[in-house]
Amino acid sequence: MIEMFKEWYDARHEYAKEWKEKTGGKVLGYFCTYVPEEILLAADVLPVRILGSHEPQDVTEPHIFGMFCPFCRDCLAQGLKGRYDYLDGIMIAQSCLHIRQAYTSWEMHIPVPFSYYLPMPNHVQSPRALPYLKAELETFKKAVEEWTGKTITDEDLDRGIEIMNRNRRLLRDAYDTRKAADPPMSGLEAMYMAVSSQMIDKTEHSDVVEESLKELQTRKLETPTGERLIIIGSEDDDTTFIDMVENCGSTIVVDDHCTGSRYFWNQVESNGEDRLQAIAQRYIDRPRCPTKDWEERSRIPHIMNLAKDWNVSGAILLQQKFCDPHELDIPIIRKTLEESGIPTLFLELDVTVPVGQFQTRVEAFLEMLMEEDLF
Amino acid sequence: MATEDSEYWRWKEYNWKDPEMDWKDAEFITAGVDVGSVSSQAVITLDSKLFAYSNMRTGSNSPDSARNAMNWALEDTGLDLEKIQYVVGTGYGRVNVPFADRAITEIACHGRGANYMYGPTVRTVLDMGGQDCKAIRTDEKGKVTAFLMNDKCAAGTGRGMEVFADLLGIHIEKVGEESFKVEKEPPAVSSTCVVFAKSEATGLLRAGWPKNKVLAAYCSAMAHRVVTLLERLGVEKEFAITGGIAKNSGVVKRIEKELGLTALDVNLDTQIAGALGGALFAEALAKKAQKQG
């Protein structure tokens, strides 16, 4: 069952096209995980996250600065190359300027019937963030209703919330299996599982996660677990890199990435009354992206808990090159982890990674962690 | 056709053995082979003591470079490869050493090798290699406790220095002393990127700068670049430099000046640190293998 996630990930475009044909529904591409998918699901829209393809490209040069992060350029390249030509709409929730540039450039050069900018507040720690976001979600809901021609009822919202929450619960359960001394799934498999949930019909995805959980109960990996690592940072679906790290004698057991745990960590706690408020609360409370984690640095205790609960011996900090928000968090994260006896390795991702050079660093890092006595 | 005289980048290749030592007395004969991006070394140790080594340019084929370096180190020792109990491959081509029993990164090997060469007081090692540089912190045994490596490009590395030697027509082994033949230390060139620095240097030469002054400016830039790497890691005494650039006083003295710290001196070839560390790890692994029967 677990192989399904990679298949979905690899054939994401074919999947979306087939879904459209089968259901006659609308597909919306989104740029950031602060997009409230509950409202889109309530309107029977399929939200798919726009991600890059990790291939060198030369189409974004006229549209986006070279010193903007490789991820935002890679995303825009997919649009310019026509790989997302099936989209009926695009949207973004405010996170960082780089990805917003990709969104606005997409809007300008690859017109779609519906495009929406959701001004998700950055200062989520303010008590004013909740009423503000709730009001924005009301406006957004109306816009979706106008676009789809469908009125979103409370029952629809309840359904949207439950579909999302079920997926989140199941992914948390899958991550929990990795706490075992010998995790039944690799970090690469977990990455495929989590990131594919951002491109596949949620219910269909949840069903497969549910099945996989049964399989995981008795599953054993062929390779020894080795060093247990956490990966921390920005968007990361660099499967080549993850595979290399795990082939050097380690297993990635948990992560703090928006393509991973940050995406599904917490639920909408709805009391069946003010649904939009409950949704807004969820996005304000979720494990934060560094664009929103100020001035209290709530990411730090969260990361420390992950490191402790999943019993890691080392951390790899991975971020997109030129990602200033993540870069700002690096010193404090490193300091805190290292003071707790968890060594760190910091690496910057580009559209493609220099695997040879990175491998030397990763191997040296693992040699440092290993207890083997060669002295 | 370029003659050897005009190949200013070309440094001397050589091999060496300790005439006082006899491998027949040794219990453990092990070796390390460091196939770097620019140079390759093979080191043979007898019971944790340096016995023989070679140092040569890496060719286009890593397995051949490994074999050539090993054969040259074995030359006139009376030893052959079969008698070597354990071989560790290291360096950029570490997985392409056909006769290696194990591959270990050059970061771990340089830490271990520097500990042997400079003694157990070494805490910070700067390995200035052909195409990258690494700042390494080690404990008293030579085990790595932290490290940083430069980014993708070859700025401020041995290869960059070779390009500059060629551009200025100053032999690579003379770069150090020549770079101090200036009336006043010039400001560093603004970039250590080999390509940018080369065009900047061409501009300075055209503006009438003597070549020694240009060289001084490049050495300063290179020193500054590695000092920032060291400072990011944190420098703890004692401090030592390994790799080819450790032989270049033009860079070393400028690093020392900027750090306010003197690098340890050694009467051994600084380029063999990686292979030497590899040979010492090989001995530990050979002992372990013997114990396990």
Could you walk me through the main structural features you see in this protein, from its secondary elements to its overall organization?
- The complex is a heterodimer of chains A (375) and B (293).
- Chain A has 375 residues and is an alpha/beta fold.
- Chain A has a domain at 24-150: Rossmann fold (3-Layer(aba) Sandwich).
- Chain A is 49% helix and 12% strand.
- Chain A is built from 15 helices and 8 strands.
- Chain A has helices at residues 4-10, 12-23, 37-42, 70-80, 97-109, 129-148, 154-177, 187-196, 202-216, 239-247, 261-264, 275-285, 299-309, 324-339, 355-369; strands at 27-30, 46-49, 89-93, 114-118, 227-233, 250-256, 314-320, 344-349.
- In chain A, the strands form 2 sheets. Chain A has a 4-stranded parallel sheet, sandwiched between helices. Chain A has a 4-stranded parallel sheet with strand order 6-5-7-8, with helices on both faces.
- Chain A is globular and about 70 Å long.
- With 293 residues, chain B is of the alpha/beta class.
- Chain B has 2 domains: 8-117 and 271-291, ATPase, nucleotide binding domain (Nucleotidyltransferase, domain 5); 123-263, 2-Layer Sandwich (Nucleotidyltransferase, domain 5), CATH 3.30.420.40.
- Chain B has 8 helices and 10 strands.
- Chain B has helices at 62-74, 106-118, 158-168, 175-179, 194-206, 211-233, 249-259, 273-291, and strands at 14-17, 29-35, 39-46, 49-57, 86-90, 102-103, 124-128, 133-138, 144-149, 239-242.
- In chain B, a hairpin with a 2-residue loop joins strand 3 (39-46) and strand 4.
- In chain B, helix 2 crosses helix 8 and helix 3 (158-168) packs antiparallel against helix 6 (211-233).
- The longest helix of chain B is centred in the C-terminal third of the chain and has 23 residues, at 211-233.
- The mean pLDDT of chain B is 93.
